[in-house]
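To whoever is on call:

I kicked off a structure prediction for a single chain this morning and the downstream step that reads the tokens threw a length-mismatch warning. I double-checked the sequence; it's 304 residues and nothing unusual in it as far as I can see. Pasting both halves so you can look.
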Amino acid sequence: MKKDLLTLRDLSSDDFDSLFIRSFELKKRLGLGITDQPLQGKTIGLIFDKASTRTRVSFEVAMIQLGGAPLFLSAKDTQLIRNESVSDTARALSRYLDGLVVRTYSQDLLKELAAEASIPVINGLTDLYHPCQVLSDLMTILEKKERVSELKIVWVGDGNNVAHSWLNASAILGLNLVISSPEGYLPQERILELAKQDAGDSIRVVSDPKEAVRGADVIYTDVWASMGQESESAHRKKIFKPYQVDEALIGLAKKDVIVMHCLPAHRDEEITADVLEGGHSVVWDQAENKLHMHKAVLEKYISH
């Protein structure tokens, strides 16, 4: 029976562990020049409604390195733009492809595609969730800290799709997660409350970013206005200014704190340029690890 990866709640803690183990194996083997091609003869489609640099390139390169073929499909170039039903599209593509990676606005559209497709569907980003991003983020934390448990992970900024996936991961893994967002910009209440029900006191909301980051092992931030929110940018800059990750803020965290950002970054807005390029930043390792984690995800979902 085919499996989909629509949110991190589709994974068990054992699934997380197996993906971490395999992504590190694949990264090490690639570094040694060893070729792994378990997906030889397989083809995935990438249906993208939204612009992408890292997610698109890392999935395409991951599929090629695993011996398969990626086929990029801009949504505007498909018959979906002419109101072909999602069901008909999913059923037809299932006859050609071995899997789909979808980057779109609507989580409901993604769910409909997955329900109608007979091939695995992987969430490459929606307005609600970004599961593969957080998988590679967790890989990076493991790489730098050798564990994710008992670490204080602080999300500073907009309660967006990446924050939602951090909540999902925390619910499954019991992470010590602190969310620090302005009033009115917290993660969606139902996602936050469900995660807190599962994880208990390990998930907290602390509105003051200075209080939130005290003793932090990991500080994570993201853009203040996500794709589709550009018209709110000027207003959000005023609201989020106290949540900027700068040297003063990271000075309140542990001395060996790591700073993360899923990119693209707006330097000197949500994060200052000196922090982004400073000794605490792991953003480039974080970006690289998308390749290795995406290889592990594709192998897990497409090879069966």
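Update from on-call: the warning came from a stale cache, not from the record. Cleared it. Sanity check on the structure: The first helix runs from residue 13 to 31.
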